[in-house]
Write the structure tokens for this entry.
Amino acid sequence: MAPKMYQLLFAGLLGEEKKFREMMYHQGVRPSLVDQMLREAPIIVKQNLSLKAARKYAELLSAMGARITILDQFSQQDDEQDTEPPTPMSSFVPCPQCGLVQSNVNVCPRCGFRLTGQSCKGEGRVASDRT
Ligand SMILES: [Zn+2]
């Protein structure tokens, strides 16, 4: 039977970026790859690893200040990453006063304009004037 495979997820930095870059450089990692890791985190940085190898890499990277998670590669093959439902466009309301588009808020976070009057539901309407 095939041995179980693991992958490493780089979730960001705990330590200093400069130090991390230096240490990665000394490990022979290309700066462009380090750039990509930092830019796209969380990102899978190693795949098809034995648990032993995965632990070794995780230990090494953690020592450099990286946040590393070891993932079971097979359990990752379900398409569960697309389950987040898209926000319907109808729930986005542009503020009539400043134009800031927001979703499901009563008061514009930018200018304080009350948006509750925009909806047809009269619920929650408070008759207080701010003037
Ligand atoms: Zn506004």
Notes: Residues 95, 97-98, 100, 108, 110-111, 113 surround zinc ion (CB under 6 Å). The longest strand covers residues 6-13.
